[in-house]
Amino acid sequence: MNLAEIEMRVAMLDTTQGFDLIYDLLLAYGLPRASISRLRSGSYNKSPLPNETLWKGKVFYRFVDSGEDLHVVIDDAKSEERIRRERPRLLIVRDRERLVAVDTRADATLDCLLSNLQAHADFFLPWAGIERTQLENLNYADVKAAERMARLYDEIIRHNSLNTSVDVHRLNVFFARLLFCFFAEDTRVFEKGQFTNAVGSLTTEDGHDVHAFLDELFQVLDTTPSNRASMPSRFRDFGYVDGNLFSVRAPAPQFSAKARSILLECGQLDWSRINPDIFGSMIQAVVHPGQRGGLGMHYTSVENIMRVIRPLFLDELDGAYDSAADNPRRLEGLLDRICRMKAFDPACGSGNFLVIAYKELRKVEHRILQRIAELDPSKAGLFKLSGIKLENFCGIEIDDFAHEIAILSLWLAKHQMNIEFLDLFGVEISLIPLKDTGTVVCGNAARIAWESVCDPGDDEVFVLGNPPYQGGTRQSAEQKADLAIAFQDESVNKYMDYVSIWLYKGAKYALDHGTEVGFVTTNSVCQGNHVAQLWPRVKDLGVEISFAHAPFKWSNSAKGNAGVDCVVIGLAPRGRRKSKPFFGAGRVRQATHINFYLVPGGRDIVVTAEGSSLGGLPPMVFGSMPRDGGGLLLEQAERDAIASDYPASKPLIRRFMGAAELIRGSVRYCLWIADAARDQAESIPPIAARLERVRNMRAASKADSTKKLAANPHRFAQCAHKESTSIIIPRHTSEGREYIPMGFLDQHTIIGDSANAIYGAGPWTFALIESRMHMVWMSAVAGRIKSDYRYSAELVYNTFPVPDLSGDARETLDAHAFAVLAAREQFAERTLAELYDRLDMPEKLRGVHKDLDDCVDRLYQEQPFESDEERLEMLFALYEDLILSRS
């Protein structure tokens, strides 16, 4: 969970409850429910006293209801030997109104009213595995190191020719070796500063001999100590690395004086603070200058990786640990199981998912070993090595440098966990020689067989990652070919997002090997026309969605923070999971089914285009299309000039409104000429000239349908207008708005084809489709242009489920429609684009929209909806009923 999710959970706590508040508080930070149940039952509680709980390593908690001074109580608790022996991270005492807490490791204190607990949610973050200092200095060391390495990279390529792919590969290998050496000298793999000091003292300032020095050193690092007799003595104290990192021939590049200076600056950083969880992606940006806008803007943050890993396998392992916690034999069985587990990322980038999966499994291993030692102290001295092998962490990556960094990142992660092993068990596991390495290959995962990289055999495999996204209109020819090859179907590559390859191949891999898949993907794969293209194919394989996370803004902690709407999708053979976790609105639900639109419950249905409204709404049509070469449309000044010189032209000119005119407030007009008025129009010289321009443009068209229209240049190509009031709905609108700005127009205004129109509709229709309920439906089923909504009458409006509306309900909706329009009039100087800006929407307008939303919500159910996910679940149930009743 991230901080926002935690804060939401804390805000929902009932702080007026007594002693039991502690259990809900622990749950709010994501601690396993099974563990908290054991704490509540007493098996984890080390305290014999009433109104007190003591959970080893986690918390000491006392509820005081007798007017005692909380500060005195907590000071006494800090000094009590029975409490200190269990080393609780947090000490908490409270009464009915206040809470006092101490972080024993950070030496921090909290004193607050319980009613204000949400404001201090960050104090308890250690329960969620997040240190508060991380919030203050998150990845600063990573950013600084990546920026310095980028400077070094630029200086090196300035003085070296990279003419072939072999040259580029050698430079990639060289940078991976540098990174290893920097990390090694700050983390006890080498002596402190050994590498940087050697470069500084044994090379000249002008840098001309640095490449030769590094080539010689790297050869030594690949040579066993017994074979170093003939090598320079200055290198003999360096450890033997092996592991293929230094065995491949990749000569170091030429260095300038500046490059040498930057290299030494890099060595002055504290590389022990580097976080391999995300650092690899930041370094990957070094060799792709176009991605350097914020060094790291394209990596998946740790919290988003955990959104995949937890439901994919980690939550189940936590439960297995809790159920086996008092049985040594079962614990050893669980230990054997995790040592045979494999993690496979078929688009691994620089290895973030594999690194986190490795570290989390090592943490589970350490917990098991600790518990075994607690149950049988005689076994404590047997723990000499980790049983989890890097070779069980497999990946495919198309980018050569990222592939090299992924292997390196796994080594760095292994060393970090070896240090944790030393701290816990007093046994040092040396990183070098690098006998164990991840199975990461460089290749195109869209085309190669995944089994060739990660063959499950008898092992338990979990497929995970954040594959590349690319919409159908933005794909390269090679990417379109990848789609056709993966699906063995040439027709799929027109609109499908590139990430569909991984979902489809992942589904086949899951079915063939009885395993599960979890990917972060763009949310567009579960919206609009994409659903019909992809998900029936997945279902036909015999695979279903096994868990999901509702759309969230994918962001990260680096500069240049990326923001993309993403979802998490789990896939498994049908029936593998009876309960399917769905994460949304700050909580997790256990669903029996999750449909293609990531809505819990219901059946796997595809929303298909309808010719008329299933809910009995008035018809919606495209606006009128000029296809005029500019002849029929007039700017304000052009209209004024014609009307001034030729007053008889006024009845032939109407206000014209498309999406841009509606939203941005621009003013345009059009010639709207009935057949009976054609002769009159052609008698007015400026209008006649415009009609001639239309005739010539249409006659010159290559389309036969347009050529035929040349005979009637006074008409729009398609005329949808009716002489009645109308509702205008833009066909495209920004995802950055909470509501689509719609308009209510008089009978004289002509709606252009960049918008949809509803003619003769009452205000109640405007109210209904301007509501949050309709927005939720639209966001689920509408298509997209990039990330913006593409509103379709057939797919959105006509499929929108509408409850039966009484006369009174319509009158109430009318009133809310007028309230919205009246609120807009109060800000007449502002455009709809300005009024509906998510961050700058006037409170008055927001308030009347909220009233409208509440009114529409009550038409669907009496009790308030807790979230948009709940609204969507209701709408899909109604849609299913409508489809079934029709058939």
Quick summary of this structure?
The protein has 887 residues and is an alpha/beta fold. 42% of the residues lie in helices and 14% in strands.
Beta fraction: 5-15%
Question: Considering DSSP H and I runs of 4 or more, what fraction of the residues is helical?
Answer: 40-55%
Based on CA inertia axes, which overall geometry fits?
Answer: globular
Give the class from helix and strand content and strand pairing: alpha/beta
**Poorly predicted parts:** 292-299, 556-562
Average pLDDT works out at: 89
Overall strand count: 25
Verbal overview:
Helix 15 links the parallel strand 6 and strand 7. Helix 7 (140-158) packs antiparallel against helix 11 and helix 7 packs parallel to helix 12 (276-284). It is built from 31 helices and 25 strands. It is α/β, with parallel strands linked by helices.
Secondary-structure blueprint of this entry?
Elements: H1 3-11, H2 21-28, H3 33-41, E1 52-55, E2 59-63, H4 70-79, H5 81-84, E3 90-94, E4 98-103, E5 108-113, H6 132-137, H7 140-158, H8 165-186, H9 194-202, H10 210-221, H11 257-268, H12 276-284, H13 302-324, H14 328-339, E6 341-345, H15 352-375, E7 393-397, H16 400-425, E8 439-442, E9 460-465, H17 477-487, H18 500-513, E10 516-522, H19 528-540, E11 543-554, E12 564-573, E13 580-584, E14 587-591, E15 621-622, E16 633-635, H20 636-645, E17 653-657, H21 659-664, E18 668-671, H22 678-682, H23 685-699, H24 704-709, E19 726-730, E20 732-733, E21 743-745, E22 750-751, E23 755-759, H25 763-769, H26 772-781, E24 783-785, E25 788-790, H27 793-797, H28 807-825, H29 832-835, H30 843-860, H31 868-886
Parallel strand pairs: 2-3, 6-7, 6-9, 7-8, 9-10, 11-13, 17-22
Antiparallel strand pairs: 1-2, 3-4, 4-5, 10-12, 11-12, 13-14, 15-23, 16-18, 17-18, 19-21, 19-23, 20-25, 24-25
Helix pairs in contact: 7-11, 7-12, 8-16, 9-11, 12-15, 12-16, 13-14, 13-15, 14-15, 15-16, 17-18, 25-28, 26-31, 28-30
